[in-house]
Amino acid sequence: MNERVPKRRRRYLQVAAGALTVGALALTFALRSPSPVGHWNSAASEDRFLAAYDRAFEDLPTPAETIDVRTDYGVVRVYRFAGTGGSTHPLLLLPGRSSATPVWAANLPGLLTIGDVYTVDLLGEPGRSIQERPITDDEDQAAWLEQTLDALPADKVHVIGLSIGGWTAANLAVHDSSHIASLTLIDPVEVFSDIPWNTAIRALPAAVPWLPKSWRDSFNSYTAGGAEVQNVPIADMIEAGMQGYSLKLPQPTRITDQRLSTLDAPVLAVIAGRSVMHNATDAVATAERALLNGTVRLYPDASHAINGEYPDRLRDDIADFVAKNS
């Protein structure tokens, strides 16, 4: 199966799934507002993001069901897509920062051949989930997701997390793995390696909403290996979320080797060799050392936009992994 998508399609897809994974880290306190929960900076900002969200969503298959799950922390938007495969447990996808469900446009057609797929808009992020109460620590981050899974009809799911979604998946697993059949962590941040300082510093201007759009576009292109982001639906949505939404989430705590070694669910770790979100060599070494039931795959030429660059290879690796752990 061809690993890379055609060139014309690649321009659309090579936008980093977690383009602003670190964008709010250093300026969280400097730019904070009195509100204790994530919120839109204005009605116009929300309208701009949702219009971009809807445009990007047009490239997804039609959902079989739209579900809004009420948790202790707010309402979580979940979509169910009907698959054609026979997986015992459905897949559940967690996106990167500011990207929400539409970031999976390149991946859903292939993943649906494995089985049913649920997608989640992360709570406290730009998207159609609505945060209503503060999320203050890693335990809260695990709690809202566990409550979401508990409300779904499936007893277990194969959790697939991308970028900050990978951290969210791993964080859930170290707190409560009762609903997890397996974990696939796609270039996760703060799981196997720390975010490099040069990336964190470069993210600073991208986190300032009143600075020009070109600054945010530049950072998003940087995380996507230099890919073009002008007039790209997913990139437009991510930039609108970065500019218009105030995050009120705690900084993710690096998941230690000791905690990784306690994971009882099988783990597929997919590491992008050219990712700016970690040192790939260190990430691979950590995953191979710390995961007692882990499979590690390095994609040497992939950037942090790995899901758009290698959708076919990811589909095949995930299909094999899920088949062995169903």
TrEMBL record:
Coiled coil: none annotated. Keywords: Hydrolase, Membrane, Transmembrane, Transmembrane helix. One of its GO terms (molecular function) is hydrolase activity. Residues 90-222 form the AB hydrolase-1 domain. The keyword Hydrolase applies. It comes from the Bacteria. InterPro entries: AB_hydrolase_1 (IPR000073), AB_hydrolase_fold (IPR029058), AB_hydrolase_sf (IPR050266). This is Alpha/beta fold hydrolase. It comes from Rhodococcoides yunnanense.
